[in-house]
Design a protein that fits this description.
globular; mainly beta; 8-stranded antiparallel sheet; 7% helix; 2 helices; 272 residues
């Protein structure tokens, strides 16, 4: 991403996407001290037709976009952007973090948008840890970013039914996570070890389920952090090229032309 190596559990191993989820990137590298913010991160680039979402775990991330949004989200928070008909944004560590350095870990995943919403007006939503409702289950925590879980409603707006969770589990805990039976679901582990049925899973493992039951029975072997991304399949053709996700190749070609012509907005970053 932006010329940097990172972990990519999706797409991988012949699995192009798990409808409606298209891509997952896991970044976990320290930012060295003594840098200027314009020297790190990902510079301005356009998107259309889906939602790039970022869960921040360590450090921070600063978002700037062609709509005029400018926000820093720190550990425990989420950057939620619906690209809609087109937006240009950048993703960088804050000026403070670039100068001082420090651990930086985040998960970015791409969520497809149904065809009828792909050309809607884009929007951006920064969520802090305090903005995100958390359910305590024993010593474990389940943060609800989107969807409804045990009557708790996540603050992020989705364009198809979804349930997106950030889970921190303590060793010895047993977690029963209820997922709607008609949802596809995937679980990706940042660190630690869990057992899911007769399967043992460790850091950077991913497992997925296609409309397969409505409960994940998890035993936490060692302190762990993992995400659960689940959603109702959209069931539409997917054509993508770089930062554009549409339904047909013609729509992708139009997106490329529109970006080249500045129709997805212009972002000129200003740094102190």
């Amino acid at each position: 991403m932006g010329g940097h190596l990172l972990d990519q559990p999706l797409p991988a191993n012949g699995v192009n996407h798990i409808d409606p989820f298209l891509l997952i990137h896991h970044w976990d590298k320290a930012v060295p001290a003594g840098l200027r913010p314009q020297e790190v991160g990902v510079p301005p680039h356009p998107h259309r037709g889906f939602s790039p979402v970022t869960f921040i775990y360590k450090g921070d991330l600063q978002h700037r976009d062609s709509l005029g949004n400018n926000a820093v989200v720190s550990a425990g928070g989420t950057q939620w952007m619906h690209a809609g008909k087109g937006i240009t944004h950048s993703e960088r560590p804050s000026a403070k973090m670039a100068a001082e350095g420090g651990e930086n870990e985040f998960i970015q995943f791409w969520v497809n948008t149904p065809a009828r919403f792909k050309m809607e007006v884009p929007y951006y939503l920064p969520l802090s840890a305090e903005d995100t409702p958390v359910i305590e289950q024993g010593k474990s925590q389940i943060a609800v970013v989107a969807g409804t879980y045990r009557d708790v409603i996540g603050p992020a707006k989705t364009y198809s039914p979804q349930l997106l969770l950030r889970v921190s589990g303590e060793a010895g805990e047993h977690l029963n996570l209820e997922i709607p039976a008609n949802f596809n679901a995937l679980l990706y582990i940042l660190n630690g070890d869990i057992a899911l049925g007769d399967q043992e899973l460790s850091a950077k493992d991913m497992i997925w389920f296609n409309n397969d039951g409505d409960e994940l029975q998890i035993e936490v072997k060692n302190q762990t952090r993992f995400i659960v991304l689940s959603g109702e399949p959209i069931g539409e053709p997917v054509q993508s090229y770089g930062p554009f996700v549409m339904n047909t190749q013609t729509e992708v070609m139009q997106a490329i032309r529109d970006a080249q012509q500045g129709k997805m907005g212009i972002l000129i970053e200003e740094f102190d």
